[in-house]
Amino acid sequence: MIPAAVLNEWYPVAMIAQLAAWPGRQTLLLGSEINVFRDAAGAVVVQGADGPLAVTLAYGHVWACPGVPAHPLFPIPEADQPGRRLVDCGVVRVKCSPLRAVENFLDIAHFPFVHTDVLGAEPHTEVGRYEVQIREDSDEVWATKVHFYQPQAAKSAAGGIVTEYMYRVAAPTASVLYKTCPNNADEWDVIAIFVQPLTEELCEVWPWMALFDDTTPQADLIQFQQMIFLQDRSILENQIPRLLPLDPGKEIPTQADLTSIAYRRWLKRKGLTYGAQMVAA
């Protein structure tokens, strides 16, 4: 039985730009088959076994709610900011818990070892102190004042810089990253992942970006982001256990894991446990 808290969330199920008429995109959501397509009038429909699902369109993607939406889809104000370039980066299928995919996105400590000479490099491996909080007003997890040396922080970066990050968990399967913008010191680049839970141990990850970059070819931006996530995939697919443990005693955290700890605590208290390993009674 899938908890109501899970059913009443919004999940990405397709890129708007790729939608066609029936049968459109046939896929899974929380273990159930769905079809995502445009009807005769051009409206987007997400059809489940028991009828159409609630739908909203945002950030280049189709979002569906299998239950009764508990709230509107989270805002990303930068999506409407003049001058930003919005980039849909396709999709990557990963044999892991959807919650594991989000947690990996929050982990900065692996940069020098998994994304060597791009997002990190030895000997710059230390994660300094940063701040993490669960913001009650927005019901989101935030990590701020994160700093890390990166040889190539973005496709447009000309050389290594100390990059500042803010991590925002806006939904159980969606996270937004704000990072130093190489092209505009007064703004943040925005990189997000929207995770579609196919099953508890299989997901599809839809990266999306809102950048200040008028020069890099679209294909190069997409390729760069896909390269980063494909480097993560082999790590994610070999994690044991496959489900994300919500019992803090199951894995040994370090200073660098403060965001992960807050994320797990937040999931547990909200009952958002699809893809999680619960504590035995």
TrEMBL record:
InterPro entries for this protein: Cholesterol_7-desaturase, VanA_C_cat
Full protein name: (2Fe-2S)-binding protein
Keywords assigned: Oxidoreductase
GO molecular function, one term: oxidoreductase activity
Superkingdom of the organism of origin: Bacteria
Transmembrane annotation, as ranges: none
All residue ranges annotated as the Vanillate O-demethylase oxygenase-like C-terminal catalytic domain in the record: 94-269
